[in-house]
Amino acid sequence: MITRTTQDRDRAIHSALEAARWAPSVHNTQPWSFAVSGGEISLRADVERKLRMGDPSGRELLISCGAALFTIRTALRCEGFEPIVRVLPDPDRPSLVATISLGEAADADEHTRALGQQIERRRTHRAGFTDLPVPERLVDALTREARAEGAKLTPVGSPEAVEIVAALTRAAQAAQSADRVLTLEVIRWARPPGSTRTDGVPADAYPRSAAHTDPYFAQRDYAWRHEWGAEVGQEQTTATGVVALLTTRGDTREEWIAAGQALQRVLLDACAHGVSAAFHTQALEMYHLREFLRQEVCGHEYPQMIMRLGITFDDGHSVRRSLPEVLG
Question: Which domains does the chain carry?
């Protein structure tokens, strides 16, 4: 029988919180805070970091928090504890996303450890990919990973469907770029060169001018009216990669959190195999375009994330707030 001491428990909680800081979030807003009471972690949504124009419902905020929740679960398992999770446990505290307590002591399996090793290595990619193909067997494995968390990952197979998704992304980006308030909200999270901020998107983590994939998937214009961003070797990074949709059957807060957990599980497994992801949420932030995707492309399931999966040799750069900053 495996036994764990109070010191083991405290070390596991500390490791889990350190890991949770590295979860992905829209524009790297890091919209979460944590509290610890005894052997229980509380994960809370930080509504002050919600995108009030782009994400008024808080859907992307809760997807981000769901990714942090899966990260905590994985880190606790790597530390030898089985997490006991309660999602949205208190209707009177809507910002309380989940509580996580430490259950029985158990050694993590090889797959869980492999995921845990990628938590701080994973990076969001914001350009095109190399021409190296993503193995079909890996895509199949990623669909199983999403299913294990209650979501569905569907690679978009036909060129016609890929073009539809790309066209909707371009349309949404064009509409949002014409909206000054939305644009200002996006660039609020774009860090200029030399910035010491520990949130948002660093200047060397997005291209100064987007690589034109075929079909073209429009990128967020973090360099709007500035000479910010990294120079990208266009000849090396123009492949689209595998386009995939993450969906859920319903569209409740619980399912948004489940989508976030599925997303992080997929991303960590992809990273373990040398595959990165680029995200395109523009069309999902516009009701009519999201509904079109749901009915015409997603088989009436609700699209929660649009991503491209591919191989890049750009390690990228990211920043995170320190643990004291996210402990409340």
Answer: 6-121 (3.40.109.10), 136-310 (3.40.109.10)
| Angstrom distances, CA of residue 88 to CA of 96, 97, 253 | 6, 5, 9
User: Could you give the count of Cα atoms lying within 13 Å of 84 in the half-sphere of its Cβ?
Assistant: 7
How much is the pLDDT for 229? Answer: 61
pLDDT of residue 74: 98
75 by Cβ neighbours in 10 Å (0-12 / 13-18 / 19+) ranks as: buried
Q: How far apart are CA 288 and CA 183, in angstroms?
A: 19
CB 299 within 8 A of CB 273: no
Output phi, psi for 140, to 5 deg. -60, -40
Cα 10 to its chain centre, rounded Å, is 27
Q: Where are the alpha helices (DSSP H) in 155-308?
A: 159-177, 180-187, 253-272, 287-296
Pairing outcome for strands 40-45 and 96-105: antiparallel
Indicate the DSSP class of residue 92.
T
Measured CA to CA, the distance from residue 301 to residue 247 in angstroms comes to 6
Q: What is the CA radius of gyration of the chain?
A: 19
CB 53 within 8 A of CB 184: no
- Tokens read off for 27: 């524009």
Task: Please answer whether residues 200 and 27 qualify as being in contact, where contact means their C-beta atoms are separated by less than 8 angstroms.
Answer: yes
Residue 103 and residue 82: Cα distance in Å, rounded? 5
Answer whether 264's CB lies under 8 Å from 66's CB: yes
* 3-class state of residue 97 by DSSP: strand
Crossing angle between the packed helical segments 59-78 and 6-20, to the nearest 10 degrees: 140
Residue 6: DSSP 8-state: H
CB 38 within 8 A of CB 6: no
pLDDT digits (tens, 9 = 90+) for 193-249: 888 999 999 887 777 766 778 899 998 888 777 777 666 654 445 899 999 999 999
SS3 content of the chain, % helix, strand, coil (to 5): 40, 20, 40
Would you say 241 and 189 are in contact if contact means Cβ atoms under 8 Å apart?
no
Tokens coding 320? 């995170």
